[in-house]
Fold:
Amino acid sequence: MTLSHGGRTIMRGWWPDRATAERKFKSWIGERGSVDGARITLTDEADGGRLLKAWPDGDR
Structure:
């Protein structure tokens, strides 16, 4: 999972269990989503970096 701001990576996290990663994704939105310009993405690194979820939806 990646938290970025202005196209720069601010924070990264990795969890081997998808359920845990999805809980963390929601947690990061609640904790960091109010930062103007924040973008949070959840990718499956085992599947070649396939995007699973992004917040906010769509490109910013």
Observations:
- The longest helix spans residues 18-32.
- The chain has one domain: 2-55.
